[in-house]
Amino acid sequence: MTKILAIDDTPYNLDILKNGLEDEGFDMVTAQSGREGLALIDQERPDLVLLDIGMPEMDGHQVLQQIRLSDEHAELPVIILTANTEDSNLARCLESGANDYVTKPFSFTALVARINNVLRTQKDTIQLSRDVEKLRDMAYRDEMTGLLNRRAFFDRANAEFEMAKSSKEPLSIAILDIDHFKSINDEYGHPKGDEVLKAFGKMLKGSLRLHDVVGRIGGEEFAVCLPNSKPMNAYGTFERLRTKLCKEHLLSGDDGEIRPVTVSIGIVGLTDQKELDSLMILADMALYRAKNQGRNRTIVETGVIN
User: N or C: which end of the chain has fewer CB within 10 A?
Assistant: First the structure.
């Protein structure tokens, strides 16, 4: 049920609003002053406010200003109730952030129509915001794993790289590659390979700090940027991940035999590189060494340990 807060300093007006709108199926809450109304907004969480303009101490314009300045309730729909029909007053109501206004005396038919219209518009606006946010998220997220995609990872990692350079704080980069992933797809099928990617992505994200930057940058290749982390600290983090992965039962054949999934990891720390790409190349070289030495291991680029 839609909850409406009516704010008016005249008890008679509040009784009329309460009784009339409850008959229309609305849940009504009332306040006899602006300050009481603001407190009830926090307590009752109304879906819409009917706000009288002409009130003592704190008038409707001041109440509306407080609502619009609130971090939590700035988008709360507000309909102004006013007996002043001058164009300048009505324009001020809208300029102050009111969603609509109703002039007194009013008919309940018109009031209910305006309430429903404002609520419908608000619902459409919220849905549009969600759709825009979803599209924005799709532009930055890897659909398979939910991690950052390649472009978003490099954008975020480059920002961390520049901050680390200017502040002279440590930073590590890691590149991870699931071993023999092509044979997993060939032997178990692509749907099972997709499950492995999703499970590994979840494990990887769960093993990191909230401010670490993690993305899927290729088919079975992942990258992590760890701000304020030296390579040997990162080494400990990824060794724990690698060991845990070996014990997970992510793959099994029709005969029930478990096939271990392993990962090779290359790590590098920031020294005097001028660009993130240079650091990524060094991390990739460390990954190549891990692959070349038998896979299922973590290698730190020795020339940059600090």
Answer: N
Q: What is the rounded distance in angstroms from the CA atom of residue 178 to the CA atom of residue 189?
A: 16
Among 84, 111, 136, the domain-final residue is 136
CA distances from 144 to 113, 130, 137, 150, 156 (A): 45, 21, 13, 13, 19
* 286, 253 Cβ separation under 8 angstroms: no
The per-residue pLDDT for 257 is 77
Q: Decide if 281 is inside a domain.
A: yes
| Structure confidence at residue 302 (pLDDT) | 67
* H helix or E strand, kind and range, residue 226: strand 221-227
Instruction: List per-block mean pLDDT (blocks of 10 residues) for the chain, which spans 306 residues.
Output: 94 93 94 94 95 90 92 92 84 88 87 93 85 78 94 95 94 97 93 94 96 96 97 96 93 78 96 90 95 96 54
Report H helices in 189-301. Answer: 190-206, 231-247, 276-292
Query: Among residues 57, 95, 195, 220, which one is catalytic?
Result: 220
pTM greater than the 0.70 cutoff:
no
How many CB atoms lie under 10 A from the CB of residue 169? 13
Same domain, 258 and 166: yes
Residue with tokens 């690698």: 242
Q: Are residues 161 and 129 in the same domain?
A: no
Q: Would you say residue 70 lies in a domain?
A: yes
Show the domain range for 126: 3-136
Residues 88, 23, single domain; the answer is yes
Type and span of the H or E element at 18: helix 11-23
The candidate with the shortest Cα–Cα distance to 47, out of 25, 62, 66, is: 25
Output the domain CATH number for residue 87.
3.40.50.2300
